[in-house]
Amino acid sequence: MSEAYFRVESGALGPEENFLSLDDILMSHEKLPVRTETPMPRLGAFFLERSGGAETDHTIPQGSKLELPLWLAKGLFDHKRRILSVDLPKIYQQGWRTVFSADANVVDLHKLGPHFYGFGSQLLHFDSPENADISQSLLQTFIGRFRRIMDSSQNTYNEDTSALVARLDEMERGLFQTGQKGLNDFQCWEKGQASQITASNLVQNYKKRKFTDMED
Amino acid sequence: MFCEKAMELVRELHRAPEGQLPAFNEDGLRQVLEEMKALYEQNQSDVNEVKSGGQSDLIPTIKFRHCSLLRNRRCTVAYLYDRLLRIRALRWEYGSILPNALRFHMSAEEMEWFNHYKKSLATYMRSLGGDGGLDITQDMKPPKSLYIEKAECIKDCKGSAKTMGADLKDLSLDKEGII
């Protein structure tokens, strides 16, 4: 990992995403179910099954149920719900919340939406009456899973970790990686490698690629 | 849906293992800018329609396109900014001469930025540490050993001094020692 490259971190767990964060851009690309509260002309090309044809000016009728990416839903939403109203995705509703509270560790958060915590936190912007329960659920789920992530990241050295991270969401994977880095640095120090001069990872990677360039 | 090409740019960078710089996607960027131009023109014409005919049900559509414009802008700016962060890292990890393979991955403007950054850094380094300047891109990790090689005593500090870690035995002028 390049040590001089400091990428813009995600802000999704806080009040607002970070504009320049690639992680947040990817997170806000995920979709959620919405309902249009007003007809939307000339956009029919995107939702062919829902919209009228040329006679209606390719309008998406009022009351259509669509799946829109988060960034679009955020942009079109207002508190009076003049353009659209937002429904909660299933995994943030009561049914799944109960599953999480039963045992948070068994759930495959990567499959359920790789940005479970980030997306869930940003969902709170839509003023659902269930917001308090959603935030509690996010918090308790994380508390339930955290211990295992921390333990496994600190006790897996030089092994294949793919089975351990398979069911973690993106934020948890970042946490796992940080733990691994700490462990690796510590082991390095214990072995006395810390004072040896080594080529930086970046330089090594470029040297490797040069070989394949020559083969092309 | 709009902004698909912009997302491709972002994904391309996100996929590159930490810190590596993929080739500058000039074609992708051009397509995003074209989409933005088309969105803007459609909105212009719809806004004029609303203003003249009072057809207010176009407003949600205009807002939809406007959100897409903002999204395209965000993706493009984040793409360019993240690349600059990677290019800056190259100066610190690779040095001031980059291998050709890397240079071909940069756009002309990025190369120019890199040269400006190199210059600013060099000017700053020259201003440190007296005559010769100080190359701060060397020795970026703190020292592992408790002692440094040589320290020359420039001022006569009669006798000895005691510090936290070590005793400074002899501080008479011009004596060299390990501290």
Give a quick precis of the structure.
The complex is a heterodimer of chains A (216) and B (179). Chain A is mostly helical and 216 residues long.
Structure description:
Chain A: InterPro entries: GINS_A (IPR021151), GINS_bundle-like_dom_sf (IPR036224), GINS_Psf3 (IPR010492), GINS_Psf3_sf (IPR038437), PSF3_N (IPR055221). Chain A: Pfam families: PSF3_N, Sld5. Chain A: One of its GO terms (cellular component) is GINS complex. The complex is a heterodimer of chains A (about 220) and B (about 180). Chain A has two domains: about 1-85, Methane Monooxygenase Hydroxylase, Chain G, domain 1; about 90-210, Methane Monooxygenase Hydroxylase, Chain G, domain 1, CATH 1.20.58.2050. Helix content of chain A is about 45%, strand content about 5%. Chain A has helices at about 20-25, 70-75, 95-100, 115-125, 130-155, 160-165, 170-190, 200-215; strands at about 30-35, 65-70, 85. In chain A, helix 4 packs antiparallel against helix 5 and helix 5 (about 130-155) packs parallel to helix 7 (about 170-190). Chain A is built from eight helices and three strands. The mean pLDDT of chain A is about 90. Chain A is elongated, with a radius of gyration of 23 Å. Chain B has a domain at about 5-125: Methane Monooxygenase Hydroxylase, Chain G, domain 1 (Up-down Bundle). In chain B, helix 1 (about 5-15) packs parallel to helix 3 (about 60-95). Chain B is elongated and about 80 Å long. The interface of A and B includes residues 69, 76 and 203 of A.
